[in-house]
């Protein structure tokens, strides 16, 4: 179902008139985690002002340590709903498990399945029963073929609205958090009709690399970008080191625009 051989035309996902796929670059931006009303509204207004089409924010967070901030959960989803009402930006938020699927599905416009859950087959099957588009992130040790097979799990259950995301893979390199595999974008575009976006923030883990890697992603033909933005990255509850301050995000949007 994901294979281009049987479906030559590119898929375009449309959420309330905001599209991902085709030849423009869709930008999803926002904090790693929803932390408070003040934090989310500040960031949402500024990324909207800079031209982002979708607002991201995690309410259920997949953290490496169980002692790290786990997210505001349903309260976070309500804040996302409030930010959408204020800005008009559709919401991208992660769904971590089947138990919480219904509540995340109620609030989210695009449901993210994170890298850590790319091969959670029961979760993929549940996502396949949803009417909401699914943003499926590549697992940190997954091949492109495995990513496409995970998309197939969703599509086989009836949901054809799948967006793929390259977010860096684990290699022997330690300077960056992961290694951004831009050739995966080309491979996915050759093999599949599904839209593919790039998340340079999780790929590199360093805010100063996010703008150049975004330009590189656009240069290879990514259909979109997902960028973490925080107005006070020093005190962010997750992923501050890779989060752009609003004025740096504005600069990123300007340089993407210049590329046409
Ligand atoms: C995220 O987008 O906040 C996230 C947890 O990303 P990943 O699943 O790629 O690690
Ligand atoms: Mn993050």
Automatic annotation (TrEMBL):
The keyword Transferase applies. Residues 13-257 form the DAHP synthetase I/KDSA domain. Keywords: Transferase. Signal peptide: none annotated. It comes from the Bacteria. One of its GO terms (molecular function) is aldehyde-lyase activity. The keyword Transferase applies. GO terms for biological process: aromatic amino acid family biosynthetic process. This is 3-deoxy-7-phosphoheptulonate synthase. The chain holds residues 71 to 330 of 330 of the full protein.
